[in-house]
């Protein structure tokens, strides 16, 4: 039996090494753009566009980073991005979970039709909503304010769909019925029973919303006019002159804007992976 098992074991080991090797290549390819951004952020534009390209970092990063802080209000933009991204991340985690709970566990007229409409909105390109969204924000008098960036991002169709599917396949109806028999209100059932059970999936959704809001450029560029209201992406755009762009300076700003996300991933990476695995569901 041991003689027969050894070739099978060796075959499994070879397959495992092939898988690890392939995953290693994918990881290196994924990290290369970040590394190249750092390399360019330590050089100048001439070095960045030279052939053959330089693959080793230079020594100008601190100088270029200092220029970034001198040219644009980077610290203020960092604070604005933290406020906007945190508000959107928390809002999506809570509001999408609440809407998903309503679609999954509450019975009301037109539930399936409304949910279908929500899902269909995912097929509409984001650019098509810019004009009506701007008109609404303008009528409210919110142009050039952070709430103009925060409010439209608090809920999205994908988040509602994600939480609805997760709640439907995670929480038993009998548990909710027992809570109603004990006198719990709908809000108490959601906040004390449903939301704690789906918190890992809501955390993943909120983190995705945080990263998306952090990297968003189009909508903040449209509604934010004053430098004191700039988010990081708009501040980086301000590094570009009207005629040309200093690649080293721009990449330095981009790398500084990416560092908080890297630090965040170091702290929540394991929880993110476990939340994704916990949030996986069967269709």
Automatic annotation (TrEMBL):
Has keyword Isomerase?
no
GO biological process: one example: transmembrane transport
**Source species, please?**
Dactylosporangium matsuzakiense
A single GO CC term, please? Answer: plasma membrane
Which InterPro entries does this one have? MetI-like, MetI-like_sf
Protein known as: Sugar ABC transporter permease
Q: How does it sit in the membrane?
A: Multi-pass membrane protein
Transmembrane residues, as ranges? 15-38, 82-102, 114-136, 142-162, 247-268
Q: Give the UniProt family note.
A: Belongs to the binding-protein-dependent transport system permease family.
Q: What is its main location?
A: membrane
């Amino acid at each position: 039996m041991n003689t027969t098992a050894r070739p099978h074991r060796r075959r499994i080991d070879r397959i495992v090494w092939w898988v690890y090797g392939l995953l290693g290549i994918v990881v290196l390819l994924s990290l290369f753009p970040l590394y190249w951004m750092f390399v360019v952020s330590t050089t100048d534009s001439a070095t960045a566009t030279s052939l053959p390209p330089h693959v080793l970092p230079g020594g100008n990063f601190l100088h270029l980073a200092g220029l970034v802080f001198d040219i644009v209000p980077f610290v203020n933009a960092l604070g604005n991005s933290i406020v906007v991204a945190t508000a959107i991340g928390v809002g999506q985690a809570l509001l999408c979970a609440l809407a998903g709970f309503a679609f999954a566990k509450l019975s009301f007229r037109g539930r399936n039709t409304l949910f279908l409409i929500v899902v269909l909105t995912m097929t509409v390109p984001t650019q098509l909503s810019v004009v009506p969204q701007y008109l609404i924000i303008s009528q409210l008098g919110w142009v050039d304010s952070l709430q103009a960036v925060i409010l439209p991002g608090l809920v999205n169709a994908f988040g509602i769909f994600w939480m609805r599917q997760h709640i439907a396949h995670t929480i038993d109806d009998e548990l909710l019925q027992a809570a109603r028999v004990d006198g719990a209100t709908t809000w108490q059932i959601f906040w004390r029973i449903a939301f704690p059970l789906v918190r890992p999936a809501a955390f993943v959704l909120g983190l995705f919303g945080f990263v998306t809001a952090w990297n968003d450029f189009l909508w903040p560029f449209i509604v934010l006019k004053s430098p004191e209201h700039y988010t990081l992406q708009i501040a980086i755009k301000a590094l570009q002159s009207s005629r040309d762009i200093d690649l080293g300076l721009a990449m330095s700003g981009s790398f500084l804007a990416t560092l908080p996300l890297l630090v965040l991933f170091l702290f929540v990476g394991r929880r993110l992976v476990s939340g994704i695995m916990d949030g996986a569901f069967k269709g």
